[in-house]
Amino acid sequence: MQLSRQGHTTEDIEDIPRGRDKTVEGRSHWLHLTTLFLALSSSSDNKPEECSVCFNDYDDNQLRPRTLLCGHTFCSQCIDNAIKNGQLTCPSCRAEHVATAATQFPINYAVEAFVRKLKNIQLTTEEAVPAKPYEGPARGISKKLRSLVQEQKSIISSLITSCEEVLSQLGEYQGQLGDWKTQHLQLQDRLYALVEQNKSAMKLLELEDTSVVDMTTQGEEGKTQLQAMLGNLDTVNTPQEVGTTIDTAGECSMKIEDWLQKCQELFPDVKTVHTSVKVQETIREALEMTTTETGATADPVHLGDSAFSIMNKVQEITGEIPQKQLTVEDLRRMREPVKRLVEAGRVLAVQEDQDGRRSARITLQDGQLYLHPLLRQPTPADAHTLQESEVVGVLEPSCTLAFLDLGWAGSTRGRVTIRLTPDTPLARQFVLLCTGQRGHTYRNTKLLQVWYKGQSDERVVGGDYESNDGKGGAPLLPDLQGHYRRSGWAGAVRARWGPGDPRSAQFVITTRDLQDGYQLRNVFGDVVSGLDVVRAAVNHSDITEVTVVDCGVVLPL
Predict the structure, then answer these.
(1) CA distances from 223 to 216, 230, 257, 323 (A)
(2) Predicted TM-score of the model (pTM)
């Protein structure tokens, strides 16, 4: 029996099992199929098992499903056909992607697994026959024997489930092998291209070498003639011999002068030298990137027991971390595979709420991990994500370092790192505005003004995340009152208006030590590095052109 994936109403699907099998087991089977087909038909007119461009079902060959960075999935063949001049426009949302081949986009293994499952359901449905109504236990079989039968049935069912799981793993592994084969072919093509470039460079060198040999021969002959003329001039005895010898010597001299001019014009040939050097550099860099020598045997890897899935073992061998499996503990350990992911910008902290999804970069610099503010930005398809709440969870109560990156005149000038006073409300609010956890951030805010410029109590004001003109900066916490210290040292960070003011998010950074024992109140942090950046900003011609181009906190992992 063939069940259509579209064109059936709810009544159509409900009518299918009638007249087939009215046993409990049969009704359960058809109810499962009914639920599945209702789910498929409820997703508009889309067919998740087929490409929405060519309307062909996905397969394991030319029509493998691949997901673009914008999140839409199409078959490999349609993606290749849509790539023009290194650009790909998504047929669904028209997003632009830089691409040269479909293989650079990841395979959607979930869609492949769904297609295989759908085919298995259809095959089972087509071959299904009415189940024999249950007639009760066979007469003459004892309870013990019936128990043995049920136990064997349970064993067989468990084995069937295990077979399905391993078959699914084998399908995923086969897909990975196909990707690797494609990548090897691409690398092979690139190697062939390097070899061809090397051959072209050698041909140019051979032509240049032939020219050098020819010119060298001409130069040697001219030199010999000049030496002979020099000897002849020493032996002339008559005016006639002098005239003849001088004329001949003049001709030889002109030839040598022409030869010298040609040498200056012809050598070196710029194209030959430039091509040779560049090709050598390219090939040398490619060879230096090779981590193992040809024929070297990799160190054995312990693959764990049989509880490990096939793809888990593959990932153990390759050192790759599966997406959605990266943890905060992995960041703490910072093993080489994780380090490579962070350095490549592929690790993000994400937060989802009723307004959508936001993500924050996690970067590594000088051995320190930095969490940047949450922003509404596309998440790359190859990104490894952590829940922002898990990452922020490690900040309390030990998070004491925040940073502001200041910039002006179109470039970032430096990072200002601030050590916050733990367990003070103003410090916690500063962290919230550096990470964007409440939706607001100091990122892209301006410094507002400089007080007492050039004097002993010079200081700079910033932090109006609302209006960027000094009139905003509402508190993010309901009560900012607390026990705050005083300080008269350069680098002290305090609230501009005090914890009870409606603009308490604005901050002040002192740039010089205060004189005569004078101290500032409501201090909740101190600049530990980058005070020179703040001073340079103060000396800029217009302080309002100085911007907090980025901000965040140091992760104490």
Answers:
(1) 10, 11, 11, 74
(2) 0.48
